[in-house]
Specification:
Chains A, B: This is Homoserine dehydrogenase. Chains A, B: InterPro entries: ACT-like_dom_sf, ACT_dom, Asp/hSer_DH_NAD-bd, HDH, HDH_cat, HDH_CS, NAD(P)-bd_dom_sf. Chains A, B: One of its GO terms (biological process) is threonine biosynthetic process. Chains A, B: Belongs to the homoserine dehydrogenase family. The structure is a homodimer. Chain A is of the alpha/beta class and about 425 residues long. In chain A, strand 2, helix 3 and strand 3 form a beta-alpha-beta unit. In chain A, strands 7, 8, 9, 10, 11, 12, 13, 14, 15, 16 and 17 form an 11-stranded mixed sheet that branches. A 6-stranded parallel sheet of chain A has the order 3-2-1-4-5-6, sandwiched between helices. Chain A is built from 15 helices and 17 strands. In chain A, helix 1 packs across helix 13 and helix 5 runs parallel beside helix 6. Strand 12 of chain A pairs antiparallel with strand 12 of chain B.
Chain lengths: ~425, ~425
């Protein structure tokens, strides 16, 4: 059987999974593609490092990318180094050398996707990156193919496994933020510097890519409002639960009258909503559209084997395209002018959690602030007081993001108020 | 822009949705396919019937299928008549006349899929039927494309919206089976003869198609064990809830050592499992595989707009294939010899619910029956007695289907025992 030869850049956990999966499922893959896909070469930092793995799968190791670029037998380059450079240069050089590219690099796609897609297009090569968003969930291909007939209005998802694990433990076990972070780090979910996870940056990269697929719009990372879960109070999680909600960190992208707004932040999701049942490190993407109305895609967001499986499914697509002679078509062919929604046109319900000095008239004061911003309150609850301080929690009716900002500003102006949290409440 | 002309057979609720969605999303569809897709002709039973609709979308109505077959401008036939005949003949004639076919006909695909696929293959035409399984959920395309790199071990799903609606109401509102059925009929979910839904036949069709995609195996409908929810006791649903389970009607297909077993039946699903949160008429398919491990696909299983959207996504695929010159490739190219798993090799935990005469020694007797079958009990609970009769509920450890059948047989042999239910309990 004919061979399709692949080079893998980076033999880390995901990279090592690629030859494993190609071997394990060789029979089925050959049946579907008509070729045998093999990892021929791998780029590593140090040739001494992966000798056993290379021997086992008969992979030539190299520390010199030129050896891969100049090898005419290599038809596909799989980039799994991560970060921006040298990954970006390597991908561009691969495309310019006539090789197809598969990558799982969300940072790169979110920040430089347009340039990479244009380069692939120019050289009529394939560029696939299903694993960049929500690891094992085939959400990009689903949006590009199955929802092509549909008009997506909103995409919201649990896009970061680390923070979902932390929030699950805080909700189910009553852990504090610090406990949850320690445990996530001990389990290897969170890096020693958890910034990208807990501040919502990782999720924002994925939101940028989802926005390209769902709405055909390229959104700058700076235009995605990022609110993480850093330092989140477990009191608020418990409070939300009492009110019938589970707090989830959601990445969302929404279309309103042809414009788009994207953000990452904690959201109070109704306890009986499918997203609320997504536990621990699992991810899920919930899509609203005018045809199908609602659909959800659930699976592991990371992990060596799920991510490697997703990478291999992209390699299979490349293999099929080569065989059919249809390489070079865009993964996502939906493109539309990028227009951002104004804060005055973004609507949601909000949850405000405020520490107040425990004295008469605080309910009235908070109500006034919200009313003066033109919004109104649906639920208002005071939690137990320690005699000096009490916590007031308010859930509003629909209000705009601009009004929310105004309310937050006014709360912060009152010396005896401390705004602990202002989260979105799920709205359909 | 070039036009791709389509004929729709049957302008019922789904059929009427097709021109609607093609019109509503025309811009996006043209962007993705490079052509304008239009419904040119429609086959109806009575030309007087759909005059307004036809006028609105500029569709030629006909009662004579030959007019469509002999129209060289029609490139795609969309079959939405349902049932076996004349749908089957129409599809075969369309393929033989060189037209591509899209259908949502699950009965036909489950019973005659092999013949239809062979006909399409012979004439190098496209045959797509994404909407045949779980309406708005793109599960077939996901299995065929995104999970091609994976080794699926088990597919289980809530595949029938009517029964899921009924079970949701029985669980959440305490309705009886009869109440739930009445309401499902009043809402138009259930037919006046609900047999196909409540006896698990509808779900079994879908299981047959899922088995083809997940394992490449053609399973006869007769080889799918069908246990429905007809007459289900709400006591058992409440009992399951107390034990931490939600009862769902699942269609399942499982691979064990290269053989496959498929069945439809009520299953006790742990309350915190994602399938347990699938409420009302929604569907979901939960896939276990060696690479991605677990993933779930959730959405509407029926309904005019979701189903029509799915049909249009198939038409878009046909349009893309025509444009790329790659028509005639199989929707599902995974094929493997069909081998059925023996009942001795099918393992599950089971839930037995038994009405007993309320006297000493009944626990012992039931325990003996289960032990003698070579199985063992995990939980054993007696519900309140009315003085004469009590109900005993047992959940077993893993046992084989053959052992389960033996236990059921022995229980039925005891004159003071009445076996009310024997359901599977979810096992990973």
């Amino acid at each position: 059987m004919e061979k399709l030869k692949v080079a893998v850049l980076g033999l880390g956990t995901v990279g090592s999974g690629v030859p494993l999966i190609l071997k394990e499922h060789q029979e089925k893959i050959s049946l579907v593609t008509g070729v045998e896909i093999v990892v021929e070469q791998a780029l590593v930092r140090d040739e001494a490092e992966k000798v056993d793995l290379a021997k086992h799968y008969d992979i030539q190791l190299t520390t010199d990318y030129q050896e891969i670029l100049s090898n005419p037998e290599i038809q596909v380059v799989v980039e799994l180094i991560g970060q921006i450079e040298p990954a970006k240069t390597y991908i561009i050089q691969a495309l310019e050398s006539g090789k197809h590219v598969v990558t799982a690099n969300k940072d790169l796609l979110a920040l430089h996707g347009k340039e990479l897609v244009e380069t692939a297009n120019k050289h009529q090569r394939d560029l696939y990156y299903e694993a960049a968003v929500a690891g094992g969930i085939p959400i990009l291909r689903t949006i590009a193919n199955s929802l092509a007939a549909d008009n997506i209005t909103c995409v919201r998802g649990i896009l970061n496994g680390t923070t979902n694990y932390m929030l699950t433990k805080m909700a189910n076990e009553g852990w504090s933020y610090e406990q949850a972070l320690d445990e996530a780090q001990a389990l290897g979910f969170a890096e020693s510097d958890p910034t990208n996870d807990v501040d919502g940056i990782d999720a924002a990269y994925k939101v940028a890519i989802l926005t390209q697929f769902a709405f055909g719009m390229s959104i700058d990372l700076a235009d995605i409002d990022k609110k993480g879960i850093r330092g989140m109070s477990s009191d608020d999680i418990q409070m939300a639960q009492q009110l019938g909600y589970i707090v989830k960190l959601l990445g969302s992208s929404k279309k309103t009258n042809g414009s788009v707004s994207a953000e990452v932040g904690p959201v109070l999701v109704p306890a009986d909503h499918p997203l609320a049942s997504v536990q621990n490190e699992m991810n899920a993407v919930y899509v609203q559209s005018s045809g199908v109305r609602e659909s959800m895609y659930y699976g592991p967001g990371a992990g060596a084997k799920p991510t490697a499986t997703s990478v291999v499914s992209d390699i299979i697509t490349v293999a099929k395209n080569i065989r059919l002679g249809i390489s070079g078509h865009m993964f996502n062919s939906y493109a539309s002018e990028t227009v951002l929604t104004k804060d005055e046109d973004i609507e949601s319900k909000y949850y405000f959690s405020v520490n107040v000095e425990d004295k008469v008239g605080q309910f009235l004061k908070l109500t006034q602030i919200i009313t003066e911003a033109g919004a109104s309150i649906d639920q208002l609850i005071q939690q137990k007081s320690d005699g000096k301080q009490a916590r007031i929690v308010a859930i509003t009716h629909l209000m705009t993001k601009a009004q929310m900002a105004e309310v937050a500003k006014q709360i912060n102006r009152v010396s005896e108020f401390e705004l602990v949290a202002s989260y979105q409440v799920w709205t359909d």
